[in-house]
Amino acid sequence: MKYTFTLLFSLIVTFFTFVQVNNVSAQYCIPQYISGCASDHMNDVEFPDAGIIHLGTGASPNCYGDFTNDPSLLGTMEIGETYSFSISHGFGSQWVRIYIDFNNNQSFEDAGELLFSSTVGSNLTSGSITIPANVDPGTVRMRLISSWLTIPPNSCEGGTNWGETHDYTVELIQAGPGEDDDCDPDVTPPVVVCPSDIIITLNPGECNRIVNYNVTATDNCPFVADADPLRQDVPFTNFWTGWAINLDNETTDQDILVTSVEVQASLAGAPAGNYNIRVFMRDGEFQGNLNSPDGWVEVGNEDVFIGAGFPTVSLYEIPFSDPFAIPAGGTSGMAVYANNGNGFAVRMVGELGTGPTTDGVLTINNNPGRWLVPFGTNGFWTGEAFPGENPRPQLQVSYQTGGDATIIQTTGLPSGSTFEVGTVTNCFEVEDLAGNIGECCFDVTVNEFPNPSPV
Which listed residue, of 41, 164, 198, 354, carries a Cα 20 to 30 Å from 406's Cα? Predict the structure, then answer.
């Protein structure tokens, strides 16, 4: 599992001049094919687990396709992981090599940068590449080079008169913790990746330049932490087929990720057996949104065994399929419903009241609370039951706090700033939940336009 976060800024450059901030767009060799690639081109290129799906590409001009600046074709690969791929060709007997320039030196010929080489020619090339465990995270260029009848001899020569070359941008990231990794204690600092030093020479008439860049951060452990569950205990005085309340995030700077709830249910004249409890949440408060399924997301659905009826009650934990995020300062509606079909066999337990329950981070807001009308024909409750009654349910909410890493700039100028002549050092740091701090720095140097030499 990986935990990756990016601080990304838009690109604005004065005088319509593009500033390169890394080596992915530097000068690489371009293979030549004398006869062309009218039919000997790569048609569909797919690295599905890396996010590169390039379909129906057709023949590129001069048999070279530079797709490194296309954000829809940006790939993401974890260091140490293996990625399968498939490449279809417009003609048979095509041979392929795949390279990645891991050190960004504008060459694919360094040791370890050839990741795949065909052993047979075909109109469909498939296989896998593995990102070495000893490479650094960052933005790199990947090259796919093909030729007809014979393997390309290197990354700069097609080898025959027919073939095609594609270049793509790949973000290499650190792998996150797996099931056996131990984050307790976590002694590994986050990895913060800055761009390479940026050197700019001004054009005639320019006094400064707006420079944009991006900084990324990864960590071996997630940037979230388990909180103590928030529990609301109530006496068993009322029950009905379902209820709805709101959950409030009381913080101003972090998400709350709800991971499960524990609710109380009882039978109402039905035999002991397996019954279904469903949990729904929505962005924003529930009030006024009880008559339509729009906006509600089913986050938990659990079959539970209920062995005794009224007045006996039991607690049941309903895990969420995915954590539901309540943004800082936000409110989310929650509805818990016993799926009885057309009957009323199972009831969710509560009392009548409006008092909130809070731990200062999360609040179970029971004002308003509402009982829910049984399911309609669309499998969704059909509105509010018993208007005027305000249920306060038996409920425990398990949650995490945190979210994206906070990348803090400690020196220099933010991306998108105007950089004057001279050198500015820009430094950034990220602190993980264990207090480990990672940092990186890079320079932006702006040089004056050189004066003309006297003749």
Answer: 198
